[in-house]
Structures are given as C-alpha cells and as structure tokens.
Amino acid sequence: MSAPAHITASASWRSDFPALHQKVHGRPLVYLDSAASAQQPASVIDAIARYEREDHANVHRGVHTLSHRATEAYEGSRDRIRDFINARSRSEVVLTSGTTESINLVAQSFCRPRLQAGDKIVITHLEHHANIVPWQLVCEQTGAELVVAPINDRGEVELEQMLELIDDRTFLIAVAHVANALGTVCPISRIVEHAGARGIPVLVDGAQGVPHLEVDVQALGCDFYAFSGHKMFGPTGTGVLWGREELLDAMPPWQGGGDMILEVSFDKTTYNELPYKFEAGTPNIAGVVGLGAAIEYLQAIGMQNIADYEHDLHTYMVSELKKVDGIRLFGEARDQASVQSFLLADIHSHDLGTILDHQGVAIRTGHHCAMPVMQRFGISGTARASLAFYNNRDDVDRLTAALGKASEIFA
Length: 411
Ligand code: PMP
What we know:
Layout: H1 5-15, E1 23-24, E2 27-28, E3 30-31, H2 42-55, H3 65-85, E4 93-96, H4 99-111, E5 120-124, H5 133-142, E6 145-149, H6 159-165, E7 170-176, H7 188-197, E8 202-205, H8 217-220, E9 224-228, E10 239-243, H9 245-250, E11 261-264, E12 269-271, H10 285-301, H11 303-322, E13 327-330, E14 339-344, H12 349-358, E15 361-362, E16 364-366, H13 371-377, E17 382-386, H14 393-410
Parallel strand pairs: 3-15, 5-6, 5-7, 7-8, 8-9
Antiparallel strand pairs: 1-2, 4-10, 9-10, 11-12, 13-14, 14-17, 16-17
The protein binds 4'-deoxy-4'-aminopyridoxal-5'-phosphate.
C-alpha cells in the first residue's frame, strides 16, 4: 500500500530547506528544535536577498522607484498576513518584532490606561514567560492582580476551574494557542465563548499555533492574536499583533517616532491611522518581505496538510519515545501539537542535549522560558523535541537511537 499523499510530500518539502542538508559532528543533521526557531525555505532566503540586492530603501512617503518597490513588498506582506489569518482588514495587522513585543504592546497600550486596582488578568500555568511577565509588569503598574488557571498532570488546562476564576473583575484573559514546553493545544473556543458572553477580551499567544494549525482569527473569536515570524519559517525580528479594529482604534500609541504620526508640532501631535499608529520607526523591511514569502510557501502546502502530517508524525514520535528504557514524558494532553518534552533516567537535560548534538540531533533543553511549568512538575528542565513538516520518521528513529546511546554512556 502506498503512503498517503501528505506523508510522501514531506520529502520534497524537506529539500526546500538548505540548512537541513548539512552534517553536524560528521552526521547528517536532524533538526528537532523548530519550536525555538524554525528553518527557512530557499524561497524566503531568496526573497530577502532579492530585496536587499535590488529594492532596498526606506518604506512609505518615498517618491523614488526603490522606495515604491520596498513599500509595495512590505505592504504586500501585510496583505498576505491578513489573508493567512483571515483578518477582516489590513488595518488590523500590526507588524512587530515578534510575539513578545505584540503582547507587551497590548499590556501597555490596551491594559495599562484602563486597568484599576483589584481588576484581574487571567492566564494559565502553561504560559511562556512572554505571556506572563508583561502582565506582571502591568499589574505592578496598576495594582491589578494576575490570576493563574491550573493544569493537570497531563499538561492540560483545568478548564472548569479556569472558567470559575473568571468573574466581573476580570479585565482580560491571555492564553497560549499551543503551549511551547508541553505542546498542549488549549481550548480557545471554550474560553472565548465563556469570556465573550461576559464582554471580556481574550488575547491568544499564537507563537506555537500559527506554524502548525490553520488559524482563522474571526472563527477563533478572540480579540488579539500574537505571533512570530521565525517560528513559522520566516526571519527573526518579525511578528504580528492582530487585534479587532475597534479595540486597536481605541488604544493610544505605544511608542512614539516616525511613521506613527500624521502631523507633529510642539503644541500637538496627531497620530496616524491603523495599523501605522503602532509602527513607530523604520521597520524590519527585509524581514517582513521574508515573512510574506514564508506565508506564500505555507499557503502553497496548505496548513491543513501540515497539521495532518505533523499529527501522524507526532503520534509516531510519542510511541517510539515510550519504547525507550527509562524515559519520562512531560505533556500528554489529549490534544497536543508537534512538541514532546521528556527526561531520560536521571541524566540532566543539558547533558542529554549535548550527547544528542554530538550525534547530529538538535533538540532544546532547559526550562523553555516556561519556568512555572517546570515548577508544576517539580523539575528544573526537560529535553524537548519539536517537529515541523520537514521532519520525517527517520528523524524520529535517529532521535531514539541517540537516546539509546546516551543511556549506554550514562549506564
Ligand atoms: N510564546 C510562546 C508560546 C513561544 O513559544 C515563544 C517563543 N519561544 C514566545 C511566546 C516568544 O516569542 P518571541 O521570542 O519570538 O517573541
């Protein structure tokens, strides 16, 4: 029986990524660290190089040809992003340096002017530091309180308990779409439904959602959605804050400078329209051009094909990891995407990562910027293998073989 089309397609996808075709410590590279930063296809690298060679100029207000071309490419990427996440309008697509900046923008521009002492921001125990610390800062600034919904031993949000924490003092709910340390897919629609009925806005940290799942912000029903270019096969230093237009409209600018103004005088400055009101200073133009190319690449494959393929591969990875003697898995949610955390016997995760690297297998080790998750499980860190659509079963087999070797070394 031949393999399903989406399984065989992976070989051609893989060939599009130059960085995957190299040896590390004399062994062909197995890259299992895409949750930290995903590799870029040749089309992204080429789009950036073409822009740098031919079109490099500053965007907006330029009358010369190169500036027109740069503006067209930059704004073209915004249109692609709008289409990719099904935003209602391009005004809702704010270009940032990444998820971290997007979340800080909401904390400082949406929350800080409105939050009152005693108001609550509700998050979960699964969050990345980028979806914890900006809320802690704004709580310190305003006297609001950060409330944390618990997770269970499988690494799932305890939804009923979370919903009970939401009351008439809740100002905002911020939750990961997919948790980076454990891979848990969070029940966004249930949370949004509950919050929406009470008029409470929901921010979704989509850093690990957008690379693996089809995201339609209108269907999700949330109010803000934040993500990063480098986790979705684009360049570092790029990202997006999507927000509902009426909310973004009512928010003051976060940073002042060029591009975010209409008119400046010492008496009064008027601000630019959306989304430029939130884009002060010269942006990462080459990066945004690359992000547009990454989205074009993803759309050609189809996010549903990616999700299906990765689901099969993740199931295979978990079943193979479970066969390794002495392994302990962290994160066994019923709905999990692309990531598996584990520890092997009593080997420190960093030692494990180093041994695997010497066999050409790249994984991430440590707390994954999710220290509270580690505290929940009483550990200091994990080894984490994270998948993208360019991985295959051979990569998983190399991972488990390398773990066998690590066991021998530490026996
Ligand atoms: N949230 C999650 C769930 C993440 O995985 C990451 C990156 N590890 C971030 C936020 C922060 O993303 P960035 O560093 O690109 O701003």
